[in-house]
Amino acid sequence: SDDSISSLFSKGFLVGISNPKDILFFAALLPSFIDNGTSSQIAQYLALTGTWFVVDVSGMFLYASLGSKISPWFEKSKNLKIFERSTGSFFILMGGVLIASTYKE
Q: Which of 48, 67, 76, 80 is 20 to 30 A from 26, alpha carbon to alpha carbon?
């Protein structure tokens, strides 16, 4: 398989652009920021798309960098068990908070 940067980018772009959830998100989000009174709507869409691209790439880069830094920590089964129990407890706690907040007398 071809693992060049352009090949990986192309594959990722095709997956992202064909995701119905992403299409619906952008179809709902972007028009609310467009000023219909101006004649340069394409420029507005390009500015919003460029901004989203920079934010998304920065977030993914941060996510990948953090993952590469902390992955050695997860190689120890003790640390993995701590992480799994902590996140499991957090989700149980948040479920309890959700139940408590919706309970009406």
A: 67
The model scores a pTM over 0.85: no
> How far is it, in rounded angstroms, from Cα 61 to Cα 65?
6
For residue 63, give every residue at least 6 positions away whose Cβ sits within 8 Å of its Cβ, in sequence order, or none: none
Structure tokens given for 30: 């972007």
Instruction: Kindly state the tokens that stand for 79.
Output: 């640390």
Query: What's the token pair of residue 55?
Result: 């934010």
CA dihedral 7, 15, 56, 58 (to 10 degrees): -30
C-alpha 30: how far from chain center? 17
